[in-house]
Amino acid sequence: MDRAGTLSSRDSLCFGCAQTLGVNRAADDMDAIAPFCRRCGGPVAHQAATGCTREIGLESPVGHLGLVWRGWVLRLIEVLYWAGTFGGTIVVLAFGGFVPVLRGWLSNHVSSWSDVVATLGGVWLSVDSLDPDSDLGPVLARVDAPLLFETIESVGRRLGVKPPSQVRLTYLPCCGVVAWRRSRALIIGLPLFRVLTQRELRAVVAHELAHLARGDATRAARSARFVESLEHAVARAPRARGPLGFWARFLIAEALRLIEPVARGQEARADRSSAIIAGGATAAQALVKVALIQPLFKEVLDAYDPRSGAGQNLYAFFRGFWYRLPPELHSSMRLALLASRDRAVDPAHPPLPMRIALLQSYPDPASSNGDAQSSSTFLGDLEIFEQMLHNRLFSTADVAEPSVFHRNGS
Hints:
Elements: H1 15-21, H2 44-50, H3 64-106, H4 113-119, H5 146-159, E1 166-170, E2 175-180, E3 183-189, H6 192-195, H7 198-213, H8 216-235, H9 242-278, H10 280-303, H11 314-324, H12 327-339, H13 352-360, H14 382-394
Helix pairs in contact: 3-8, 3-9, 5-7, 7-9, 7-10, 8-9, 9-10, 9-13, 10-12, 10-13
């Protein structure tokens, strides 16, 4: 608050927080303030109707010790699932379960161990990682993007983590890290280079490398794959019944109760690293931009026809659409994104207003030359990469989809 008693854009409050703190804030001040409440992090326009984010029961992310013990319990649940399902299947087979299994084998309905378990009412699954070369896009060489590799190495040094062995360009505006065997890869969606500034892309890189620094892409990712695979297997198993079916349903219920705070705690921890590296305001801007561009790019992808003969590849088509949007529409879409009450609940990420509140509490470092420039300069001739990914995307019969997709722009 300045000396005149008016709220600056950085110190804006929603109606609920302003009333709680006894600050006089009129509704006609809406256009003069920032869209985020500095106390609760919620969208300012939306808080008049819903009240303070703190007062509507949003939970804070769990701390480090909470993440550790929940991670150990999740791994214990995985061990119990394999051991209990295998041992239970042997017991059921010994007490007459071999009869329906033999009948199914004679009718060619049972041909594997998973079929045996399913016949007896249980669920057996596989959580093997997919081949990373199948869907994550081309691998960048250092000569292709020297500035990008220098940025990744600089951020890695500040976080105390070794840079990943691969940097891959993927087709959609997503970002993430993956690990398989002893290899690790940083995934950056090509459309993000047209949308983010250099400092904002540095915030995205810091967030993802923080996941690597804490082992989120290895130990925690395996637990997440197990829980997701078991959940889908139970949902697709109408024959799950008896003791084996009850065992699977009991374990997935316990695992789902544990995995959500683990995933959200990891995201909050990575957000803090992003804010420390790039600054709170910059990290918040990057988060909102990525969350905004993902549904827009999907709409562009639905509207684009590679056979139209217009002479534009997918990314040139998107670029023309994005750059024609007026700044007023950009601001309106950001506010609508934050104020929407119909956003799907993402168990892997805290609510977007809560993440914005955390990020905005961190100071902004001094700007350096080039921070405000487009991150497209990190890739040299970006149009060549756009044409290459377009050709890879539309010249193959295989559907290319990212393995890592952060819906809330992490």
